[in-house]
Amino acid sequence: xxxxxxxxxxxxxxxxxCINAEVQADGTSYYSVLLSKPEYTEEFLREAQQHNMNITYxxxxxxxxxxxxxxxxxxxxxxxxxxxxxxxxxxxAPSEFSTKQSDVVGAPSSLWDRQWDMKEITNNGxxxxxxxxxxKVVVGIIDSGIDxxxxxxKKNIIKGSKNLVPQGxxxxxxxxxxxIINNIEDMTGHGTHVAGQVAANGVVKGVAPxxxxxxxxxxxxxxxxxxxxxxGIIEAAKDDVDVINLSLGEYLTSEHMNEEGxxxxxQLAEILAYEKAVxxxxxxxxxxxxxxxxxxxxxxxKNEVSSFMKSHFQLNHAKVKGHLLDVxxxxxxxxxxxxxxxxxxxxxxxxxxxxxDLSAPGGDIKLLQTYGVEKWRKMELFMKEQxxxxxxxxxxxxxxxxxxAAPKVSGTLALIIDQYNLKDNPKKAKQKLLQKSKRSxxxxxxxxxxxxxxx
Length: 455
Description:
- The chain starts with a strand and ends with a helix.
- 28% of the residues lie in helices and 25% in strands.
- It is globular, with a radius of gyration of 21 Å.
- It is built from 13 helices and 24 strands.
- A hairpin with a 6-residue loop joins strand 23 and strand 24.
- The strands form six sheets. A nine-stranded mixed β-sheet has the order 10-11-9-13-16-19-20-24-23, with helices on both faces.
- It is an alpha/beta fold and 455 residues long.
- Helix 5 packs parallel to helix 11, helix 6 packs parallel to helix 7 and helix 11 crosses helix 12.
């Protein structure tokens, strides 16, 4: 009997978007509270409970707490010596995408010929002759989980993965979420795809096929709280993970945006919390890698950024203050990764700017724009510009986005750490990565070349 491997075609901008605050039916909202010192956590929790605030999530290592309270209840935080800042909690949600599925009859021994991206950065596989990585080096995938039984991944996934989605899921709207700590089942496919780019070792190959993987699940089937992602960074660092991959992001601003006749908005608590989490990770010896956004924004162009801010935050007549940040890619210490396509030019969808450290192949949509969806699919043009990787239930999927670029950098860093004995030395590992990366004339951004980075 012939066995079938499912190959899915997915086009997705693969960006997680910041959505405005929501008021619950009972008149309460979710708030993120950042304490001035982590040591205040227990005292603050006792005080909050005395005022009938519902504590929904805690990251005690950096003093970040999420509460559910009414506007009147939360006002008691003003002037509290323990509170550095607070604001409406931010949520992240997968952007819209369309899918098409096709079956491949039989069980192919290799899909390497379809991995144009992996061929490009490994010099057609030559980097594998130098090193395929080591099980001693661990990459943590903060994402939607991983298919732990996937034939191309199961030998790489080691004990210690964690589910950080609490019982009830996003704001108690996901009843299937039971808060079980070891449940890393991937319900969207995103995390499994990312993991394959790092360390797949089967029908498809990743950058570092012998590297160990851990999953830190922060997405179920719906949205996620920013605090869960921050918790993922902390937990991965505590678990001695060497490289932390964040193929996700959100747009935040540290100052108020005042809509005429409306309320002010700020996301300072999350920004500062991300900064503290990255510093915590570096202190524990972890390198943090993040993808930039997929909205074609040039962050060097103030007018373009201002226009995008008003559109993104749905502000028609706003007075916008402060800088827009592409978080966590914009955070100091993070290796920020943009995407290139098969022509070695910046992908149509990829953000750009001085905050970007280097580029890696993440696919493109130029052929899609030229021929339209129907011809693009019928002529299988997606194979020429999309990135093939692992998907749940033993499948393989084509995707495009900066999310496909970042894990290639994470895998390369894992190789560098192993090759040069740089465990617990994140600064030197990053320095070696950027020194060995070549500046591309097409993008004016350093381009990843795994072969040169570990040679």
